[in-house]
Inverse folding.
């Protein structure tokens, strides 16, 4: 076949030829097997029983002739009993013989000849002799025997012998057919095996010379390209299918060379634009991460090393309160970073003008105008360090988590710390000296079940609530760390605020969304509400983005909110900095490697100073 012939057509021709040969051989083998089976059945089921029956029939004839002759000579009628018994068996033997030889016309004629000879001997010899002997005419009986008795019986014996010889001839012929069929069967199977072996050897030779060699040449060329020698020519040899494959690989090589060139140009452009990216990242870092009476720490792990679409910020307002923003912009890279920077600046400006978080979000969305496909979620909060009041709005962002810890002073150190003991203030509770209460209506934070921890739900009696019935508080009897540091955006300690040694009970409250995500498509007047809650010393407000709980392991299982709550409750007395680091570590162990999405979180805790 030509080197450029179609692999498919060549294989088709080879398969058709080999199939026809094998089918012919197998057909001959089947024919031989059926023929041998028929011949064996013919001899075993018909001819052999017929030969036996013929022998038995001859024995009955001899018995009758001997009985008649003895009766004629002696006159003893007891000798006729054998004659009578044979009269019963001979008809049955004749019928059986005719049934066995029904498919052999020549042999059936032999049985007819035997029947005729037997009837002639019986009517002309046996019955007259018996009748004459019974009448006492022994002379007449001897004359019959002398004149025709021996002749008729000899004819009967001859006809039986001829039938036996014919049956023996058919037996020999059947045996010959069995042997010839066996020879044909073996030769057919042998020929089929030789044909199959020849086809296999031919296919192996064709594959080696016509297929494997071109593939090996193609493999060497592809390996050369994979090693970086992009100018290697891809050989186009072999069947048309391999030639087509080689052409496709060469086209892919050309595209790869083009992508490499583009990548080199992109790296050059990136090297030139690096300062702008660094400046943009610096602009997204928080303004301040500490304030009197508050401990704050935040962390951003960007996706795949890109410029993050997540950000957080905290800054001091004119009245001494602290503004805190955590946001998540759709997408990654420079475009998402620029959009995040715009949101950050606008939210900072709105809070600096004294706007509540809900109206601030609405003003920012209206100021952005049309954002096409870009959107963001955010949590905006204003915290009063002096009273612990937190006014918060959630624009379609994952629920914030409020970790409340009922602290019981352990020993005389409590008097020196200035921390309060006893019941913890709940979201929306009116406190002495502050009558602002909640401005968010009747919203109730949704409970989060977690192993070992209680779930707090805002009650119906003015907003007070406690652990849910049947739940168990976590952290009983645990000692708090001696100190919790306050860190800046780089994680460097900025203070030495110390927490007392306490016995603690912990519970987590979910703070759900108070409005839709930040997008002009869903903007409307009053779409975002502001809620009020209170932080007690030791409480921790944990705000995060979806990349933290949606981190997936190798089996594509998310880290999930339940695991996050369980980690918050695992050691109730950890400081905020240690708590944040432990959360990121347990997420990293669940989903190692570069994050598939930005992971951002911030913790806010109130101190006594």
């Amino acid at each position: 076949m030509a080197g450029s012939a179609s692999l498919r057509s060549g294989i088709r021709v080879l398969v058709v030829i080999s199939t026809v040969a094998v089918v012919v051989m197998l057909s001959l083998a089947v024919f031989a097997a059926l023929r041998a089976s028929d011949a064996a059945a013919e001899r075993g089921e018909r001819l052999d029983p017929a030969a036996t029956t013929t022998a038995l029939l001859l024995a009955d004839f001899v018995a009758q002739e001997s009985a008649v002759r003895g009766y004629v000579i002696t006159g003893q009628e007891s000798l006729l009993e054998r004659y009578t018994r044979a009269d019963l068996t001979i008809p049955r033997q004749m019928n059986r013989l005719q049934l066995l030889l029904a498919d052999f016309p020549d042999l059936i004629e032999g049985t007819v000849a035997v029947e005729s000879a037997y009837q002639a001997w019986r009517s002309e010899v046996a019955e007259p002799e018996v009748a004459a002997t019974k009448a006492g005419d022994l002379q007449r009986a001897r004359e019959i025997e002398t004149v025709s008795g021996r002749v008729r019986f000899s004819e009967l014996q001859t006809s039986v012998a001829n039938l036996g010889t014919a049956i023996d001839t058919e037996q020999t012929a059947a045996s010959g057919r069995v042997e010839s069929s066996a020879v044909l069967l073996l030769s057919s199977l042998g020929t089929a095996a030789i044909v199959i072996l020849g086809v296999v050897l031919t296919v192996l030779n064709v594959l080696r010379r016509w297929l494997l060699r071109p593939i090996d040449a193609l493999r060497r060329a592809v390996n050369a390209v994979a090693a970086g020698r992009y100018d290697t020519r891809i050989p186009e040899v072999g069947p048309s299918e391999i030639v087509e494959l080689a052409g496709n690989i060469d086209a892919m090589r050309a595209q790869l060379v083009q992508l490499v060139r583009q990548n080199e140009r992109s790296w050059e452009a990136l090297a030139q634009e690096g300062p702008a990216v660094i400046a943009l990242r610096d602009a997204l870092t928080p303004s301040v991460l500490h304030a009197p009476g508050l401990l704050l720490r935040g962390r951003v792990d960007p996706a795949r090393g890109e410029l993050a679409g997540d950000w957080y910020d905290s800054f001091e307002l004119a009245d001494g309160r602290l503004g805190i923003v955590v946001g998540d912009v759709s997408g990654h890279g420079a475009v998402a970073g620029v959009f995040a920077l715009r949101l950050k600046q606008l939210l900072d400006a709105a809070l600096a003008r004294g706007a509540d978080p809900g109206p601030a979000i609405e003003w920012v969305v209206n100021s952005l105008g049309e954002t096409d496909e870009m959107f963001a979620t955010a949590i905006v909060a204003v915290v009063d360090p002096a009273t612990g009041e937190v006014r918060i709005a959630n624009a379609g962002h994952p629920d914030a988590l409020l970790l409340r810890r009922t602290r019981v002073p352990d020993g005389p150190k409590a008097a020196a710390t200035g921390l309060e003991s006893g019941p913890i203030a709940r979201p929306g509770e009116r406190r002495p000296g502050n009558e602002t209460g909640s401005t968010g209506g009747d919203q109730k934070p949704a409970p989060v079940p977690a192993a070992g921890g209680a779930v707090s739900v805002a009650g119906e009696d003015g907003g007070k609530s406690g652990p849910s019935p049947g739940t168990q508080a976590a952290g009983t009897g645990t000692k708090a760390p001696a100190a919790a540091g306050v860190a800046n955006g780089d994680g460097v300690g900025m203070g030495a605020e110390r927490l007392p040694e306490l016995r603690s009970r912990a519970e987590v409250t979910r703070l759900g969304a108070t409005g839709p995500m930040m997008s002009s498509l869903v903007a409307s007047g009053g779409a975002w509400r502001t809620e009020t809650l209170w932080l007690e010393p030791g409480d921790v407000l944990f705000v995060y983005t979806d990349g933290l709980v949606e981190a997936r392991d190798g089996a594509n299982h998310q880290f999930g909110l339940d695991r996050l709550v369980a980690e918050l409750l695992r050691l109730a007395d950890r400081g905020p900095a240690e708590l944040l680091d432990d959360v990121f570590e347990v997420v990293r162990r669940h989903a190692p490697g570069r994050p598939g999405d930005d992971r951002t979180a911030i913790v806010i805790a109130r101190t006594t100073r």
Residues 22 and 193 are 8 Å apart (CA to CA).
